[in-house]
Amino acid sequence: MTDPLLSIRELRVRFDTDEGVVQAVDGVSFDVERGETVCVVGESGSGKTVACESVTRLIPMPPGEIAGGEILFDGEDLTEASEKRLESIRGGRIAHVFQNPQSALNPVYPIGAQIVEAIRLHRDVSKQAARDRAIDLLDRVGIPEATARVDDYPHEFSGGMKQRVVIAMALAADPDLLVADEPTTALDVTIQAQILRLLRDLQAEFGMSIVFVTHDLGVVAEIADRVVVMYAGRVMETGSVHDVFDRPSHPYTKALLDCLPGQGQSMRPIGGTLPDLKQPPAGCRFHPRCPHATADCRTGTHPELLPVGSGHDAACVYYGPGYDSTVIRGESVSESRAADGGDAVADSDSDHDTTGGDC
Amino acid sequence: MPSDPLLSVRDLKKHYPITQGVLKKEVGRVKAVDGISFDVTPGETLGIVGESGCGKSTAAASLLRLEDPTGGAVVFDGDDITDYDDAGLKRFRRRAQMMFQDPSSSFDPRMSVGESVAEPLAIHGMRDRRRRRRIVENLLERVGLSASDFDRYPHEFSGGQKQRIALARALVLNPDLVVADEPVSALDVSIQAEIISLMRGLQAEFGLAIVFISHDLSVVREVCDRVAVMYLGEIVEIAETETLFDDPQHPYTRALISSIPTPDPARRDERVELSGDVPSPSNPPSGCRFHTRCPEVIPPEQFDLEQREWRHVLDLRLRIDKGIDVDDVRAFLVAEDVADAPEAVPDAAVERELRREFDVPDALSDRAAEETLSSGLSALVAGDLEQARRTLDEAFTTVCEREHPELERTASGSEPACHLATESVAIDPPANHD
């Protein structure tokens, strides 16, 4: 096996605020192989965006600070890289796509000019060649009649089309890694399906790796090869998309799957609230909301990621010595769901009455 | 219907004029809501779903006369609210309340949440401050907060908590109807689940009817008893929730349902993909408004074309109708190094490029159709746009474009507005003329 393209090791990012130090990312590690799509999934405040923006140091510093860990991109530690070095990597070998395409485009320049700028920033080519490439990229991302539209302004495009333009711009310098942060969240479902298909096709064509940040498990199932589940600045579970969905192994992952609406079985709220990252709870970060929490979960440090299968890890004490992990994993999800589908409502009442998740 | 409807909407319309110049001359109309009808019975939850721009939020606002409807009737408990004067409207709004998407912008940051929740009581004449406070404190507890939260301010609450407070405010007058416009869209899934189960519990307790507007079909499936699907200002299908999701009758409903990402990686490639964006409501397509994107659009009877092939041919034809600049295609081919100058690009290459752009095969499976198409394209490439349009428009037309379908009840129990669902078309397959 070759080295991973991106390897994040024990990354710690904190923000100095007036109310105290927020430990947004607290010892996060994961790898991204070449040509692979890794989804980082979590609720708001889980640190998923901060972790991914730290890769090219897009977080504002100060108040932000990378307090520890390594970000190895193709063997080079980006936490040590100079600002100048990072400038050439941003938009070059690592490109970002953000949630809101409206704010990623400059409203007073035609889209073509913006793509040409991105191309010429990283490639020494003539204006005409850059323009031809811009048209070609717009065509690849599915903008109809690219030649006619290259001189249009952002407001002349719909939301979905704008996101295509932003993706074309991200592809300008043939990146090795595309970091897409909630790129479909602002779009309608039908348009979202188009963009997800586009990203998959482009990945097959260009062979790039994608880090896809999202809160939507449905989208994860649609696009991921591997999944990293984050909660309160820590990785709770990581594994292949099939392992994580077929055999969710961390109580948090299970809870997240159970609160999805419209899946045919009763939806169960998680109950409780996200912890305050200025004073994270001792022990497992999820223990105040976890139905299986024991005394060990409430003290000490957050559990380490422990293997639960091949390439599948979960940070839960139940996979350590002296615990019975079947308590968490039960049978496969579909079986356990079918088994307790009937009394699920009663269950959620008794388990989650902490903050009025009950009815 | 088990009981008389609480709310009965008939042919509701809301058009916004597009004006130009100093005299504000009306040059067009955005038909945001264009003739929708539905009933809501007491205690029922009706969902309205659709993509952005389909008019669902305008419909919500028109229901409570936050926007004055352009036409149609909204009958609430026997009275048409479009006839109400100010006093009548105030009485009506005591019984019908609204909840909005963004809980942060729907509270006054300088009022304590208790004051905000109590305000409707004061407006509707409850003078006794202590009594107001008692009612609100009780209600805050019912929505899962505590009575002591009365004196706190909106910024002290999280998004989910603020949405609980918004729910308390909507319920404080003990209404019969709540119109909720995307009430959980701004929330995380885990919080969403809490608000949904809270709404459900309170609905049963208060006997509320809810009109639930959302773009999220999973949420709608979880919450609603019946669902109306809107597209470009019209309802294209309305049915009981389970009927709609198990056996959707309208191609748009099918496409919408199939684009919901399911949390099951094994089911990745089962998507019906819709091409293109929603057309502008100021100039909606003729006939069935969905025909410009419909993957099941009915082919012309005289040709034997595969469905996908026909879809692409129709896309190409509609694009030519809108006006297409062949010189742009030539310029694109020059950029692609097909030729050195636009004039040097061979006509055949332009035709091929047009077919490629619209995924039309180099030769259609039906010979007669192919002849018409290539003669039309030749005319287009030769610069005779009119001739091209005439040739193509005459041959490649569809009932979906000519006739507007009405909502009609089908055997499944659903009411789609689609020519495919009406018997005459569904039974006779397109005739084969070889």
Automatic annotation (TrEMBL), chain A:
Its EC number is 7.2.2.11. Signal peptide: none annotated. It is a peripheral membrane protein. One of its GO terms (molecular function) is ABC-type nickel transporter activity. Pfam families: ABC_tran, oligo_HPY. Residues 349-359 have a biased composition (Basic and acidic residues). It catalyses: Ni(2+)(out) + ATP + H2O = Ni(2+)(in) + ADP + phosphate + H(+). InterPro entries: AAA+_ATPase, ABC_Ni/Peptide_Import, ABC_transporter-like_ATP-bd, ABC_transporter-like_CS, Oligopep_ABC_C, P-loop_NTPase. Residues 334-359 are annotated as: Disordered. Residues 8-257 form the ABC transporter domain. Coiled coil: none annotated. Its main location: membrane. The complex is composed of two ATP-binding proteins (NikD and NikE), two transmembrane proteins (NikB and NikC) and a solute-binding protein (NikA). This is Nickel import system ATP-binding protein NikD. It comes from Haloferax marinum.
TrEMBL record, chain B:
Residues 265-274 have a biased composition (Basic and acidic residues). GO terms for molecular function: ATP binding; ATP hydrolysis activity. Pfam families: ABC_tran, oligo_HPY. Residues 256-289 are annotated as: Disordered. GO terms for biological process: peptide transport; transmembrane transport. Residues 7-257 form the ABC transporter domain. Keywords: ATP-binding, Nucleotide-binding, Transport. InterPro entries: AAA+_ATPase, ABC_transp_ATP-bind, ABC_transporter-like_ATP-bd, ABC_transporter-like_CS, Oligopep_ABC_C, P-loop_NTPase. The keyword Nucleotide-binding applies. PROSITE patterns: ABC_TRANSPORTER_1 (PS00211), ABC_TRANSPORTER_2 (PS50893). The keyword Hydrolase does not apply. NCBIfam families: oligo_HPY. Belongs to the ABC transporter superfamily. This is ATP-binding cassette domain-containing protein. It comes from Haloferax marinum. The lineage of its organism: Archaea, Methanobacteriati, Methanobacteriota, Stenosarchaea group, Halobacteria.
